[in-house]
Amino acid sequence: MSFTDKAKNKAQDAVGKAKEKVGDVTDNDDLKRDGQADQAEAAAKQAGEKAKDTAKNVKDTFTKD
């Protein structure tokens, strides 16, 4: 996973957490759900990036001379 992708995912997660917290404090269920969705999307992206990294590591392990 590149540093840039990792940073973007962390930022999206942080924004999602902030939205959820503000939505909770202000009783704004739409904002709260939007924040939860942002967090879920960031987690899914991070899982995909980790899967790609794992696949690359496995490939590199078996293709070494």
UniProtKB/TrEMBL annotation:
Region Disordered, as annotated, extends over 1-65
Q: Which InterPro entries match?
A: CsbD, YjbJ_sf
Composition bias, Basic and acidic residues: 1-36, 47-65
Ranges for domain CsbD-like come to 5-56
Superkingdom, natural source? Bacteria
**Feature: compositional bias, Low complexity:** 37-46
**Pfam families from the xrefs?**
CsbD
Known Gene3D superfamilies for this protein? YjbJ
State the family it belongs to: Belongs to the UPF0337 (CsbD) family.
Q: What is the protein named?
A: Uncharacterized protein YjbJ (UPF0337 family)
Which organism does this record belong to?
A: Pseudonocardia alni (Amycolata alni)
